[in-house]
Every structure is written in C-alpha cells, then in structure tokens.
Amino acid sequence: MSPVVLLAFIIGYFLMLILVSYFTSRNSSDNSSFFIANRNSKWYLVAFGLIGTALSGVTFISVPGEVGAPSGAQFRYFQFILGNAVGYAIVATVLLPLYYRMQLTSIYEVIERTLGTVSHKTAAAIFLLSRTIGSAFRLYLVAIVLQRYIFDAMNVPFWLTIVICLGLIWGYTFKGGLKTIIITDTLQTVFLVASVFISIYFICESLNLNIATAFETIKESGYSKIFFVDDFIESKFHFTKQFLGGVFVTLGMFGLDQDLMQKNLSCKNIREAQKNMFTFTGVFVIVNLFFLSVGALLYVYANKNGIAVPLDAISGKPRTDYLFPEIALNSFKGVPAVVFMLGLTAATFATTDSALTALTTSFCIDFLGFDKTKGDNASSKVSTRHWVHVGFSVLILLVILLFNAINNASVVSAIFKVATFTYGPLIGLYAFSLYAKKRIALDKATPFICVLAPFLCFLIDKYSKELLGGYVFAEELIIVNGLLTFLGLLMVSRPVKGGIARH
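Above: the chain's sequence. Below: its structure in token form.
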C-alpha cells in the first residue's frame, strides 16, 4: 500500500485526537485536571482506556511474533497474563484502598510518610528513570516500523519521524493532561481492539476459515501450547516462573507505577476505581488471548504462502516483530493495512501520552512540591508544568536518538532490561514502608540499597547456572530484587518502641 495513503490515515487519526483535546481542555486546563482529571473520571472509560495504555505498540507486534519464534514460546505468554490477572486483583484490593485513604496525587508520597524524604525522592527517581527509558524503548521500536514502511519512501530522516511523533503527542496532551488522555485513550483502545479482531477476520478469510475451523486450525497448528510444566530448573517458560513473574511484575510495573495508577486515582472514589480495575483485568486477559491467536494465524498464513520472517536491518537475523507488519502491509494491503497501522499507532501513542503525563506529574509533585505550596500563584505552576512537560518530551527524544546511534538491537534491549530491574526496589520499598509501622530505617541509606539490589540481581541472573545448580531466571527475578531491597532496608533499620515510626 502507498506510504502516502497510510500517512494520510495517520494524520486524520491525530487530527481527531487534537479535536478531542480541544473540547476536553477548553474549559479547564489547570493542574488538577492535568494531574488527576479533578477526580471525576468515569470508571468504565478508565477501565477501557487502560487496555491501550497497558498494551504498548511493542506488545501489538511482539506478542503475535513471539508465537512462532525459534525459542518455541508458542502461547507461553498467557501463563504470564494469568499472573498479571492475580497481580491486578492485589492492586485493586490492597494498594488502591491505601492510595485513596491517603488522598494521593503521586503514589510515591506513601514512601515519604513512612520512610522519609530521601526514600520518597529515590522511589520517584526510580520511576522517572524506568518510565523514561521504557517509553523511549517502546516508541523507538515502533518508530522503526513506521520508518521502514512509510517514512523511508518519503526520504524523511529518522530523527524527524520521532520529533513528529512526540510533537503530536505533546500537542493533544499539554493542556488537558489526564483529563484529555482518559478520553483519547478510550478512543485509541477502540482502534487497537478493533484492529485485532479485523486482522483475525482478514487472515481467516484468506485461509478460508470460519470461527470453528479457525479455532481448530490454531489448536492443531503447533503454536498453541499454553502451559509449560517441564524442566523447572532450566526452562524460562515454566509455568511457576511465568505465573509468579506475572504477579510481581504487575505489582511493580502497574501498582507501583505512577503512569498506570494515575488513571485509577482519577476515579470519584475507591469503589469506582476497583470496578475499573476488575473490568480492565477481564478485558485485558481476553484481548491478550486474541493477540496470541493472531500470532498463530499469522504463522499458518506465512507457512502456507511461503513468507519468511523479515530480517533485522542491523543484525541480519530474522526479526519476528516484523512478521505482523510485513503481512498486513505487503500481503493484505487495502483495509487490513490501514487497520493494522491505526492499531499500531493507537497502541504506541496510548502508552506514550500517558507516560509523558505521569512523568510530568511525578516531577511536579515529588520534586517541585506542587502539593506543598498550595498558596503559590496557580498560573505560575501551570507555566512550570508546561515546561516540565516539554522537558520530558525532549528527554525521550534524546534517549530514542541515543538508541538509534547505538545501532545495536541487543545493546538497546539490554538497556531496557536494566530499566525493568529498577521496579524490584519499588516493591521492596513499599513492602518495607508497610512494615515500617514498627521499625524506622536509615533514610539516607535508601538510594544505595536501591542501586545495590538491582546490581546484585544482574549478577545473580548472569551467573545463576553456576551458583544455583543450573537454575535459569525468568520474570520471577523481580521477586529476588524486591526481597534484596527489603532485606537491605531491614539491615539499616531499628525497632521503634511505643508507637509508629513517623518522619
């Protein structure tokens, strides 16, 4: 399909988002709207919009691609998703009541009230670092697809592609913030979910399959194995590792992440926030199952039509992430191509716009102390918030350009993996903050512990076969990370007699 036609649809899509932004922010663009949408969001809009935020553009192309990867992953990711579901239930029943009871804007204020100022800023800094790298990584990988299939044909340089993407996101979020994002992410989730179902329809049509025969085809394809229960020691796909990893990764990267919790805190009350969480969880599980089904059907289609997995431009090795766009844009074309590109765009920008808002919120609350200077000039704070928003947009741009300059996919992936390591200390910090009612930790030691724990985890992961009798870690390594942080805080703490530790 012509890159010009695809670009025209994307431009039209963004014009729609900017129009939504105009109507949602024209009567209210203050900091309360930007940070927490005046705590007046409809729970069902938050629930549906969270799907788009939780499923990034990387998920959109990577989950289907991994189904037929040489590693033999098949549907093993669904084990992780089941763990996610349990993690979301814990977030809804344990963390959300805590956040609402304390009337928080930034969830890292919990740490300040129990462990102290240094610990509070450490937790916020961990989020800022992790989310900046993570958002840049996700946008970078999807921008490569946009560059390959649209902008290369127009001789648009990669740096300009990123500037355009971030400029568009900034354009529809800088005034309304979360109030706008609640609506735009709902629309983007509609495009994302619709693209999954429409993709399944077109693949099935091309393979002459109906619903019943499609189910049987997936089942008999050799790509649909869900539960891996063999070789607990050496297999990263073992159910126990994937399930436990799913639970604790959700606690760290959702329940303790300002980006994803900020939307929950915009609901009117805890009951509506919990309805949002449980509804979101059910839809999230189902949508991921359909993503995996798309992957199986894509490989069936590719095998039938002699389509090879595209090669990575850098390493020259097969890149399963490219299979979905390759088939959608070069084999199906027409409506499926447009649907795929809009779905990919929706998944990517629903994640990035939310991240930019959360990064701005956390910096303004946790480092600039907006909530502690309520008597200051409101317009001055809004102006400051605008500059912070611009600053994080530029920072993400620079990180993406750094990734592109490195020009090594494995190194970039390693940087992203390092960022994910930092969510473990957040779990340890929060666990200890709840335990700290009877203990008080040395506040100034927290940054060192939160750096040491991920470093030790990196070494444990690298040498686990030698140290642990051949054991190979998967996502459950985050449990070890959190435990090391907790034990470190325990070592530098002392019991408090006769009451609760206060700072």
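The first strand starts at residue 439 and ends at 441.
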